[in-house]
Amino acid sequence: MAVDIKTVAELRARTNAGMVDCKTALDEAGGDIDKAADILRKKGIAKADKKGDRQVKEGLVHAYIHGAGQVGAMVEVLCETDFVARNEQFQDFVHDLAMQVAATNPLYLTSDEIPAEVLEKERELASEEFAGSGKPAEVITKIVEGKLSKYYEQVCLLDQRFIKDEDLTIRDHLKNNIARIGENIQIRRFVRFALSSGGVE
After folding, report:
1. CA–CA separation, 78 vs 60, rounded Å?
2. What are phi and psi of 65, to 5 degrees?
3. 126: Cβ–Cβ under 8 A, 6 or more apart, which residues?
4. Burial bucket for residue 172 (CB in 10 Å: 0-12, 13-18, 19+)
5. By three-state DSSP, how is residue 201 classified?
6. What is the pLDDT along the chain (201 residues), one digit of tens a residue?
7. What keywords does the record list, in alphabetical order (predicted)?
8. What are the CA-CA distances from residue 29 to residues 34, 46, 48 (Å)?
9. Helix residue ranges per DSSP H, 18-131
10. By the 8 A CB rule, do 74 and 180 touch?
11. Contact criterion met (CB below 8 Å) for 76 and 56
């Protein structure tokens, strides 16, 4: 099936991929633009993984204040060059992260940062819920691991669903931006502030 230039241009506008890559993806997808976008996304994530070891020396510190100023967040995100740090797409990504932190209050960047004692406590609580249920041990183990995965989604920034597109995790959003921008990007740290009746949380 021949792919017309209008469809290629539409896919390019949607994904920011090159014209040749868009044409190749559309050929592979039989002209289906949604399938082609998914192909490009998967290829982009693969490319992003290859960039993960490249050194990051530049970046941006960005603050976001929500609503009437009662909740705010600050993030530090690193990239390879000052050129990208000044790039609008990179800055939009950093802003998205600050909004995410303000909205969801993650406690850790990844599950690797969760203290062992906290993780063990969560595991115990999940196990106790099914104690005496009569379910086989292997079934309980799977249920507990599933509950831990849900816990990671709540408290780990990279595992959270992106508030602007819940089909993506923040990890997906990060990899997509690495692929589109063409540089390694790392989230270094973040902090959230909120007013409470007793002062700042």
Report:
1. 6
2. -115, 125
3. 143, 144, 147, 148
4. middle
5. coil
6. 567 788 888 877 776 666 777 888 888 888 888 888 888 777 765 455 555 566 778 999 999 999 888 999 999 999 989 999 999 999 999 999 999 999 999 999 999 999 999 988 988 887 777 777 777 777 877 888 888 888 999 999 999 999 999 999 999 999 889 888 888 899 999 999 998 754 445
7. Cytoplasm, Elongation factor, Protein biosynthesis
8. 9, 18, 22
9. 19-28, 33-50, 82-85, 88-104, 116-128
10. no
11. no
CA distances from 131 to 139, 141, 150, 166 (A): 12, 11, 20, 33
Give this prediction's pTM.
0.69
Q: How far apart are CA 183 and CA 57, in angstroms?
A: 11
Partners of residue 59 on adjacent β-strands:
78
Amino acid at site 13: A
Residues 6+ apart with CB under 8 A from 115: none
